[in-house]
Amino acid sequence: MSAQPQSSAERVPVLKVQDLTVHFSDHVGHVFHRTERTLRAVEGISFDLYPGETLGIVGESGSGKSTLARAILALVRPKRGRVLWLGEDLTQLDEESMRQKRKDIQVVFQDPTASLDPRMTAGDIIAEPLRTFFPHMAPLQIEERTRGMMKMVGLLPNQINRYPHEFSGGQCQRISIARSLVLNPKLIICDEPVSALDVSIQAQIVNLLRSLQKKLGLSLIFIAHDLAVVRHISDRVMVMYMGRSMELAERDAIYRKPLHPYTNALIKSVPIPDPDLARAARRENWLTGDMPSPYHPPPGCVFHTRCPYAVNRCHADIPALRRMEHGDWVACHRAEELDLSVRE
Amino acid sequence: MRGLFRFSQVLSTDVAADDPFAAALAQEPIKGRSLWADAWHRVLRNRAAVTSGIVMLVMVMLVIFGPMLSEWSGDYTDWDHTSSPPNLETGHWFGTDAVGRDIFVRTLQGGRISLLVGVVATLVSLVIGVSYGAIAGYYGGTTDRLMMRAVDIIYALPFMFFVILLMVVFGRHILLIFVAIGAVNWLDMARIVRGQTLGLKNTEYVEAARACGVGHWAIIRRHIVPNLIGVVIVYVTLTIPQVILVESFLSFLGLGVQEPMSSWGALVNDGAQDMESAPWTLAFPAAFLTITLYCFNYIGDGLRDALDPKDKS
Amino acid sequence: MGERQSSPIPNPILEVRDLHVSFDTPDGEVEAVSGLDFELRHGETLAIVGESGSGKSQTALAIMGLLAQNGSAKGSAIFGGQDLMQLSQDELNEVRGREISMIFQDPMTSLNPYLTIEKQMVEVVMHHQRLRKEEARAHAVEMLRAVRIADPEERIRDYPHQYSGGMRQRVLIAMGLLCEPQLLIADEPTTALDVTVQAQITHLIAELREKTSMSIIIITHDLAVVADIADCIIVMYAGQMVECGSARDVFYHPQHPYTQGLLKSVPRLDRVDDDALQAIPGNPPNPVSVPKGCRFRDRCAYAMDVCRDEPPLRTAEGGRASRCVLEIDREDNPP
Question: What is the ipTM of this complex?
Answer without folding.
Answer: 0.83
